[in-house]
Amino acid sequence: MSFLPGLVSGSLVAGGVGYTYRPTFLSLMRLSRYIMQSLAERLQEPRVPAPPSAAERIQHNPRRTFIMQRWNEEVEGLFHTVRNWDKKVVEWGRRIIGEDGA
Q1: What average pLDDT values come out for the chain (102 residues) when binned by 10 residues?
Q2: What is the phi-psi region of residue 2: left when phi exceeds 0, alpha when psi lies from -120 to 50, beta otherwise?
């Protein structure tokens, strides 16, 4: 019979402790919710403004743009010239081989 009174007394003590500290737990839980809510709101509203984007930071210089455009045109012309020479060499080789082979 000592098991049953020990169980009942332990349950009463645990219930009393839980009932006594329940308001403290509830107030701490409310405080934690309030703190978490305020932190979430602060994270949604940044205080430090974002730096300008990379596209906004680019400074356009008309002279540099003109020089780059001209450079690209010259390189493009060089590639076209080399391609045309290659075509002429291929045609010349076919004519020589075609004349010798006939």
Answers
A1: 77 80 85 92 81 87 93 96 93 82 50
A2: alpha
